[in-house]
Amino acid sequence: MIRLSILLCLFGLVVKGQVQQLDEVVLSAQRLKSEIQPLSASIISDALNLTITQEVGGLLQQVPSLFVSSQQNFTQDTRISIRGFGARATFGIRGIKVLLDGIPITTPDGQTQLDHIPLSQIGKIEVLRGLSSGLYGNASGGVISLQSAPILSATNVSVSLGDFESQSLVATWSKAQEKNRFRAIVSHQKQKGYRQWSAYENTLVSLSNETDLNNGNTLKMDYSLFHSPFAKDAGGLTLEQVNENRRQARETNITYAAGEQVQQHQISARLKTKNWLSYAFYTRRTLDAKLPYKLGGQIDLGRDYFGLGTQTSGAKNKWLWQYGVESAAQHDARIRFINDSGEKGAKTLHQNERFYNIGTYGIAEYSYLDWRFRTALRADLHRITLTDFLGTNDGKKNLVALSPMVALHKKLNTEFSSYLRWGTGFETPSLNELSANPSGETGFNSSLEPQKSSETELGISFYRKKFDAFLTLFYTKTKNEITSYELEAFPSQNFYRNIGQTTRKGIELEGNWQLISSGNFAFSFSHGSYQTENKKELPNVPKNQFTATWEQKLGATKLSFHARHIGKRFANSENTVQVPQFWTADVMLQSKRQNTLFTLGINNITNAHFFDNIRINAFGGRYYEPAATRQAFIQVVISI
Hints:
By secondary structure, this protein is mainly β. It is 5% helix and 58% strand.
């Protein structure tokens, strides 16, 4: 019934209008308030209002060299890689720094979960592709900066329904006064899921308050509560099982009741004065997870992470600069138990893990005629400790990293600009990766080392009122690349190892073209090679990606068509198992009638068969998590 209504509306709504052209903007993710973009960057803003998704990855698919997977497994969460950094993640995001209004969402050891951020709060997303440790330190193979929409007086109720029993209810109330602005968002989502044993449910509360203090100072306070009583994990299948029934779950996952329960509280404060910008945050996250194996297959994790930072910027004559200091700490209390067919058995691991970081950085930019020269330097000190309550494998490790970056920008004429950048990056193993000890003993895997990278990037941009394009070439060398694998003795359990040197090189192209006054065409393309020293490609990193989006405004109605191509990639490090390429297409129609906004759409309109996630180096060939077929949805937003 939903699909029939959508198809009728798609053919029945036709009115006149125009698409608004975006002006040039200054990237806040590059820290300096400079008009140039010496780092390859993508900005997502208007498209946010024309997308229905239950996770952030759905908003990022048009960014070149950025690959999104695991969008339909709410146990493992969305996985994102940029130029191959982050591809090894078995759950969540690794190797990429994520910020919300300038405050780190990524933990000090480099892990990120985005489930506690309501998508209706986001007003703009900035993505910096490439190494950014000179700006943000550990795990900065790329940067995703989420920025909240301005708080305006409004009351909205949003209801979304879709196939596979997908339901979402979001209520937003905000009040903007002369010196104070407040917003409250409450959302509840649930879905049965395309595959067996893939259902989930969660509730989210987000509160924001922004106050104008004396002397032009501003204080912003945010609090969020995220509660997920269950998210089931259908697991990976062999290719034979996929061909037999792509909607089935792995039998072992059902036997061991694989899935998780999560609760998180986060509070943050951001103080902006005339000369300084400072922040502080605290997060408490508890996780009860059941994994599809017996020994250590149940995990109780209590995580506290907190931090603070301050920065100041200035400008004089031809100089711009910023310097600052940031500090963060992460405390993980990790306990593992035997998973006795979904029941908790004897304790197999009990340890406290600590990760501390302090970093200081400075950035300077000098302009001369049409030239801009930028340099940055960051120093980080990390301390990692472990207390083993079941054995005698206590340990500690100190790591020091120095991350320089230089960039040269030249404005060639009124339409063309170019830049050359060289930078470095580093990524420590996360606490979860260190605690996955292939020896089967408690304690850290002492053989796992940080990976270090250097990158050269050349770019050229073209800008006209109705057409802009950006071309980038990159070349990256990484030492001690970290990847995941499984062992026959511990099936379904992920371990990590260094695999030597990796070379990343590629080309990226993106642009916008306003072909007619009421329509806009956006496109992106990337081609890359991500090879180890044995001339093997990194698994689950596609060599080719292409997206194209047409947005047409028809009076009070917007029509959007989005096509995406993902090229071939490999499921294992030996490159003996190839994952086939695929095309998908989505169509959406949005219309406003008085105080009601209707959005209708179909995801994967061609009913393509592809894989939502690949489990890298999975033992027994269980690489594949099939993606949903055609899915229709409808959303109604009422402004009260």
